[in-house]
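Sat 14:20. Reprocessing the chain from the morning session after the first attempt stalled halfway. Input below, unchanged.
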Amino acid sequence: MAETVLQIAGGMRDSDLWITPSLSPAPPFRRIVISGGVAEYVYGREKQDFGDLGPRLAAALRRRATELDVELLEPREAIRATCIGASQYTVQLSGDTIFLSDPEVLPLRSVPAVRLNATPSATAVALAVRQGMARLDLNGGEDGGDGRFALAVHWHHGADYASLRELCAGIVSALPGVGHGHPLLVVIDADVAVLVGALLQQEFGVKGDIVCIDQVLLREFDYIDIGKPLPDQGVVPVVVKSLVFH
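Finished this time. Tokens:
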């Protein structure tokens, strides 16, 4: 691993390890900076062994850099944004607390969440949806991605018709093609999923599949799985996966 890193820094362009197009040609680098978790060991800032390859890879980098006469420059500011794990929790939601236009649309797996603090204003909701999609570089699949996402709605305005209608109007305004190609997935942390699903389908005429679940809290960068309804139980298994960064 250390050999490959230093060979690429030294100008090697042909490698079976590339997962993207290879870098454009550049002169060999004789002075390099290493960042990330392994760099903590390269520069001697970390001594504890966490049971991974970090210490050994760092030792190999230092040794091979010396042999190749490559100078390892130490940066003033360290970058240590290392993913230390992923957490998840599972819940089962009864049929009384979800709106599901067609059970056959399930399961849905690894759908990213677009988080929005919704207000009972269609204009504000539409703006929040567009801003949330922009933050996560989502554009409904126009860039060749699968276009799936879940609207994660933080809602504390009750279950009155007027407020929920504004919420639905904002969603439809922000997503004019909603319901075409991908299910509309709405996850609300308040007990109003059935009402929201019915409004979207019956009053706003959303075509296609709608999945609306409630009493689940999603944050930005969370991903959600929704499984098939369990036979004879009327419940849907839901898994929320959150990346944890240090």
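The CA atoms of residues 172 and 178 lie 7 Å apart.
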